[in-house]
Amino acid sequence: MNAEIIAVGSELLLGQIANTNAQFLSQQLAEMGTDVYRHRVVGDNASRLLDEIKEAETRADLVILTGGLGPTKDDLTKETIAQHLQLELVSHGPSLQAIEQFFVSANRVMTENNRKQALVLNGSDVFINHHGMAPGMLVTHNQTVFVLLPGPPREMKPMFQNDVVPKLLTIFGGGKPVRSRVLRFFGIGEAELESRIEELIDAQHNPTIAPLASDGEVMLRLSAKHENKKEAISMLDHTEQLINDVVGEYVYGKNDETLLLKAVSLLKEQQKTIAVAESLTAGLFASQIASVPGAGSTLLGGVVCYTNKVKHHLVGVPQDILDTHGAVSEACAIELASRIRTRLKSDIGISFTGVAGPEPLEGQPPGTVWIGLSFSDREPFAISLKLTGERNYNRIRTVKHGFFQLIRLLEKETSSS
Amino acid sequence: MNAEIIAVGSELLLGQIANTNAQFLSQQLAEMGTDVYRHRVVGDNASRLLDEIKEAETRADLVILTGGLGPTKDDLTKETIAQHLQLELVSHGPSLQAIEQFFVSANRVMTENNRKQALVLNGSDVFINHHGMAPGMLVTHNQTVFVLLPGPPREMKPMFQNDVVPKLLTIFGGGKPVRSRVLRFFGIGEAELESRIEELIDAQHNPTIAPLASDGEVMLRLSAKHENKKEAISMLDHTEQLINDVVGEYVYGKNDETLLLKAVSLLKEQQKTIAVAESLTAGLFASQIASVPGAGSTLLGGVVCYTNKVKHHLVGVPQDILDTHGAVSEACAIELASRIRTRLKSDIGISFTGVAGPEPLEGQPPGTVWIGLSFSDREPFAISLKLTGERNYNRIRTVKHGFFQLIRLLEKETSSS
Question: What ipTM was reported for this prediction?
Answer without folding.
Answer: 0.71
